[in-house]
Design brief:
This is TetR family transcriptional regulator. The protein has helices spanning 8-23, 29-36, 40-46, 50-71, 79-91, 94-103, 112-134, 144-163, 172-184. By secondary structure, the protein is mostly helical. 24% of the residues are buried.
Length: 190
């Protein structure tokens, strides 16, 4: 499900709702509205039930993550530059990412729409790593899918640590890039 283009205020409300649902997972719609400083009527513009809200936020988060993936130009930009843009783009929507991490369920990919969205996402990311392996940049003994999953796991874990106040936001992009590249770059044999 693709969300229509949203104005800045709607984007702000959805991001705030995403974090509120992570911080207060059992909150009612009324409590969520109060937590982000909007009326219940404003919240009802986005969804009328908690289930609709979860679906809306999952779809919106997927749309934002895919947009950031496209903007990174993983298929044509120099690899390290593209990786940097990918990391920065994913971090730009950390509220929605936190929500998606928290609400992810193993059966999510059984939904045809979700499976198609995430299969396409990982196909692009895997293709990026395959290109980097062919160019000699990334280690070939680690499969492209492993590199993709490792990067997403690193992003997810450190985004969560930043949300909990353990890591400073400003240092996060460079830290993720450095940590990932330290393990992923092709290295000459000892």
């Amino acid at each position: 499900m693709t969300s229509p283009l949203l104005n800045a205020e709607d984007e702000r409300v959805l991001a705030a709702l995403a974090l509120a649902m992570v911080d207060k997972p059992r909150a009612t719609l009324q409590e969520l509205a109060q937590a982000i400083g909007v009326s219940k009527a404003t919240l009802y513009r986005f969804s009328r039930t908690r289930e609709e809200l979860v679906d809306r936020l999952m779809a919106h988060g997927a749309q934002l993550m895919n947009r950031a993936l496209e903007e990174a130009e993983l298929d044509k930009a120099p690899a390290v530059e593209a990786l940097r843009r990918f990391i920065e783009g994913q971090l730009r929507h950390s509220e929605l990412a936190a929500f998606m991490i928290y609400h992810w369920k193993p059966d999510t990919l059984q939904d045809v729409r979700a499976a198609a969205t995430w299969s396409a996402y990982f196909a692009v990311l895997d293709g990026f790593f395959l290109r980097g392996q062919r160019d000699g940049l990334f280690r070939i003994e680690i499969g492209a899918a492993v590199l993709s999953e490792s990067l997403i796991s690193l992003l997810s874990g450190l985004m969560d640590a930043e949300r909990r106040g353990r890591i400073a936001r400003a240092s996060l992009p460079g830290m993720i890039e450095a940590m990932f590249l330290a393990g992923a770059l092709s290295q000459p044999a000892p």
